[in-house]
Amino acid sequence: MSERYAIVVDGTAAMPDEVSRENNILVLPLHVSFGAETFTEGVDITTKEFYARQAQPGARATTSQPSLGDCRDAYDSAIRDGAKAMLVLTVATELSGTFSVAKTAAEQLSGVRAEVVDCRSLAGSIALVGTACARARRDGASFEETVALARKLAGRVKLFAIIDTLEHLRRSGRASGLQAMFGSLLAVKPILDVHDGVLDPIDKVRTRDKAVARLKQLIEERLAPGERVHFCTLHTNDPERAGDLGRWAQERFHCVEYYSSEAGAVIAAHAGPGVLGACWYPESMLKS
Question: 112-141 in b/e burial notation, b at 16+ Cβ within 10 A?
Fold first, then answer.
């Protein structure tokens, strides 16, 4: 690589392949299992194959973070390509052990600077931090300046998501904070504000269409019409709704950056199919 330093993101970043290639961003692998069978997402299981397996009666997917070896393989690849330093962006520590593993692997490097930043969220929130850092690198920012930018954006990129059913979160053990609010009402569509490693329920709606309308309202309460914004949508096996939400955002706001992405097998294993999310930050945040 021609850059002086590498940027590596957690595999939960839901970053489309074309975005990672265009921005020269490395992605740490994540793993998903069905019973005794373990797969590496994007390597030996496709998202289509994952959803087909997940839909089978009695199927239960579990996930695992990258290993030390996975992290070292990614770091070594960057070093072979000429990186003298690397910035690693991970999911919130409350949601995964990836930060700890990535940091341990980074501490084992010799002669290469490495900074591991907890982005305090997941999915597109990590991806948008990653693309901001890649643009800074492209524009000549030093490694220290780009690390400072990552720390500045960490925890400030918004992520709102509609969960189609609480069943998968309940089974995965990640709905403890939601059950107190929703009880046994598993038919509702909760809207979550994901921040600081917490899945914070901010509303519950009975139908999917009403949930999408409410999600748009929540976004409009936080962004002015025509505001310059970096925006992405994400979904689990629902590209049509994600595309519709993205088109709405591009009509409503000035999206200086936009893409839509499948959130991937690891997020779908915990949240199930039918998730629809929006991630964004105003461009003014880069100057504040």
Answer: bebbbbbbbbbbbbbbbbbbbbbbbbeeeb
Report residue 5 as tokens: 């330093």
Tell me the per-residue pLDDT of 32-83, one tens digit each, with 9 for 90 and over. 999 999 999 888 899 899 999 998 988 889 999 899 999 999 999 999 999 9
Q: Can you give the pTM of this predicted structure? A: 0.92
List of domains in the chain: 5-30+65-153 (3.40.50.10170), 158-286 (3.30.1180.10)
**What is the C-alpha to C-alpha distance for residues 119 and 32, in angstroms, rounded to an integer?**
22
Provide Rg for the chain, Cα atoms.
18
Residue 256 is classified by DSSP as E
Looking up tokens 């991937």, which residue turns up?
264
Unique residue bearing structure tokens 């982005």: 119
